[in-house]
């Protein structure tokens, strides 16, 4: 049966791969992001995909998004996010103001955005539906404010699972390791760091966005209806590189 799926940050990278999967299954997919260009590009590829611009850290923008969405959402994928402070991860900020700004930006982008989106959509989620958060391997490593935000996301997901469970709605986290070919790391990683991330995997390769799709699809399926509040790592068996 066709479902209604919202993929936040669905214009690029992992979100795009996930959105394209559901659209190919015949589901109705809404994708969001702050920039309209990438969204339009994805929507142009499939009649099942609709693009709506939205900044998920902004409650007013989420209010406007609600007006654009169908009455019922079966699957919510909280994928929007990314490390807003990749270059200052060492935590060597001398200026406390800029340190605070950078730390807050990561919490906003990766934790608060997902919390606000789920809250905004809570009453629209269909019984038997599912929420999937895109976490990160960084949640289990010393990875600065980004890792802290993703760890917070995994913890906060436990609340979502508890609150929505009585309605038959599951809430789980898919936690990717290093995924190449997305805007996340593009032009931001030295060759040395890239090699270290690959060498840390058991599979000896970087992940690609399509590697994440199967885990999301499973957790959003009825086969996973008794799995909730869990974290599913999709990282090629990566061990910490820190
Ligand atoms: P991308 O940068 O390609 O995807 C991030 C998407 O989120 C973009 O489409 C971006 O669009 C959107 N986005 C970011 N902030 C907001 C916001 N405030 N409101 C709405 N949309 C937003 O990178 P990935 O595909 O790699 O990242 C997807 C998710 O996977 C992220 O949550 C990331 O943290 C996580 N992840 C990625 C890993 C990797 O190695 N690539 C590893 C582990 C986790 P726009 O800029 O137009 O808003």
Describe the structure.
One of its GO terms (biological process) is fatty acid elongation. This is 3-oxoacyl-ACP reductase. This protein is an alpha/beta fold and 242 residues long. It is 40% helix and 18% strand. Strands 3-2-1-4-5-6-7 form a seven-stranded parallel beta sheet, sandwiched between helices. Helix 3 packs parallel to helix 4 (96-121) and helix 4 (96-121) packs parallel to helix 5 (144-164). 42% of the residues are buried. NADPH dihydro-nicotinamide-adenine-dinucleotide phosphate (NDP) is lined by residues 8-9, 11-15, 32-35, 38, 54-57, 79-82, 109-110, 113, 134, 136, 176, 178-179, 182-185.
Provide tags for this entry:
7 helices, seven-stranded parallel beta sheet, Rossmann fold, 40% helix, binds NADPH dihydro-nicotinamide-adenine-dinucleotide phosphate, 242 residues, alpha/beta
User: What is the number of helical segments per DSSP (H or I, 4+ residues)?
Assistant: 7
Named at the architecture level, the CATH assignment is: 3-Layer(aba) Sandwich
| Contiguous uncertain segments of 5+ residues | none
Q: N- to C-terminal separation?
A: 45 Å
Listed once per kind, the bound small molecules are: NADPH dihydro-nicotinamide-adenine-dinucleotide phosphate
Helix coverage percent of residues?
25-40%
What is the number of strand segments? 7
Quick one: overall form? Answer: globular
Instruction: Give the CATH H-level superfamily.
Output: NAD(P)-binding Rossmann-like Domain
Order the strands across the largest sheet as they lie in space.
3-2-1-4-5-6-7
Q: Strand percentage, roughly?
A: 15-25%
**What pattern of helices and strands is seen along the backbone?**
EHEHEHEHEHEHHE
Average pLDDT, rounded to a whole number, is 95
What is the subunit arrangement here? single chain
CATH domain fold name: Rossmann fold
Q: How is the biggest beta sheet arranged? A: 7 strands, parallel
Number of domains: 1
Backbone structural class: alpha/beta
């Amino acid at each position: 049966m066709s479902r209604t799926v919202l993929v936040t940050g669905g214009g690029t990278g992992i979100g795009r791969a996930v959105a394209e999967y559901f659209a190919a299954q015949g589901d109705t997919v809404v994708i969001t992001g702050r920039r309209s260009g990438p969204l339009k590009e994805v929507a142009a590829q499939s009649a099942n995909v609709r693009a709506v611009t939205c900044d998920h850290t902004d409650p007013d923008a989420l209010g406007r998004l609600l007006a654009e969405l169908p009455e019922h959402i079966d699957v919510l994928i909280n994928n929007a996010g990314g490390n807003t402070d990749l270059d200052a991860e060492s935590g060597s900020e001398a200026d406390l103001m800029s340190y605070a700004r950078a730390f807050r930006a990561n919490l906003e982008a990766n934790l608060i955005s997902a919390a606000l989106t789920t809250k905004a959509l809570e009453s629209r989620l269909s019984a038997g539906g599912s929420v999937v958060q895109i976490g990160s391997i960084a949640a289990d490593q010393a990875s600065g404010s980004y890792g802290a935000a993703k760890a917070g996301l995994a913890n906060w997901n436990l609340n979502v699972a508890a609150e929505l469970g009585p309605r038959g709605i599951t809430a789980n986290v898919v936690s990717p390791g290093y995924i190449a070919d997305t805007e996340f790391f593009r032009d931001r990683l030295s060759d040395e760091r890239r090699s270290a991330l690959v060498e840390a995997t058991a599979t000896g390769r970087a992940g690609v966005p399509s590697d994440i799709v199967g885990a999301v699809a499973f957790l959003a399926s009825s086969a996973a209806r008794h799995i909730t509040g869990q974290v599913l790592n999709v990282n090629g068996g990566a061990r910490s590189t820190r």
